[in-house]
Amino acid sequence: MKISVLFLFVVLSPATAFLSPRASPRVSVAQFAYSGTNSRVNVATSTNNPPPTVAKRPEARRAKELWESTVPVIIHGSSLRTWSFANPNVARVQILLRTEGRPMHANIDLWHGPDNTPQKVALYIEDGALRPFHAYVETPRSPNAVAVYNTGQLEFPLAAVVEADILTEPLPNLVIGNSPRVIQGGALHTYPFDPTVQSVAVLLKTDGRPLNARIELLQGPNNNKQVMEVYSEDGLERPFYVVLETPGSGNVIRIVNTATMEFPLTAYLEPVVVDSTYPPGRFW
């Protein structure tokens, strides 16, 4: 009798009891390793033997260091991820986006209170590994939240890092070395530069009026490698600062003021990473 009861217990036991539990799936981020032009820069410490690829400003290293010290968040196509910053001491955040080589379509919004979006960026990049996105967003008067929405399809995931920035100086001071250019509403201006320039810092600001602009990186005729539609409620309080990766030759940055004539903007551009291994030529 005992043997039959034991036999029935074994037969009626769930089959899953004899199976090892499944491990929870994990998303690998190895393919999203940082590989932009800033990944091989060296900040010059001596004028006698400068490195071949020189970062004109120390913050050129910051993107690579932040990416390597932080686990990126994978955002799949048609997905949204938000980062909240309730600390009043966080006045600026740094945003890094990249793919494993596929195109990138994304919207970046700054939320400040309910139904209030003082800054927006609509982004397209042809190759998110060769030209990762690197921008700074001002976040005065907490609490603030940054939303990153992958508007691409499911086959085009992206990796994102959003962290509070340690810079304390105002954004215009980062590109103060170059003369600004005022671009009236409805006007555009282009900036061609040498292949020695591997990345360029772009700052757009106003005198307190709204900022509406489009930034395009072209390489060849009508060949857009990167396009950004930028909106800021107050271009003085929340200017837009982005570092564009410009590998190769024939790169041109085009800035279009998409607002009306009553809303001019001021544009600053400055090379960030310069590769001295290229032969000398026209610079800017």
Q: Would you give an account of this structure?
A:
This protein has 284 residues and is mostly beta strands. The chain has one domain (32-164, 179-275): Sandwich (Jelly Rolls). Helix content is 7%, strand content 40%. It is built from two helices and 17 strands. The chain has helices spanning 2-12, 62-69, and strands at 53-55, 73-75, 79-85, 92-98, 104-111, 119-125, 133-138, 144-150, 158-164, 181-183, 188-192, 197-205, 211-219, 224-232, 240-245, 251-257, 265-275. Strands 1, 2, 4, 7, 9, 10, 12, 15 and 17 form a nine-stranded antiparallel β-sheet that branches. Strands 3-8-5-6-14-13-16-11 form an eight-stranded antiparallel β-sheet, with no helix packed on it. A hairpin with a 4-residue loop joins strand 13 (211-219) and strand 14. The protein is globular, with a radius of gyration of 24 Å.
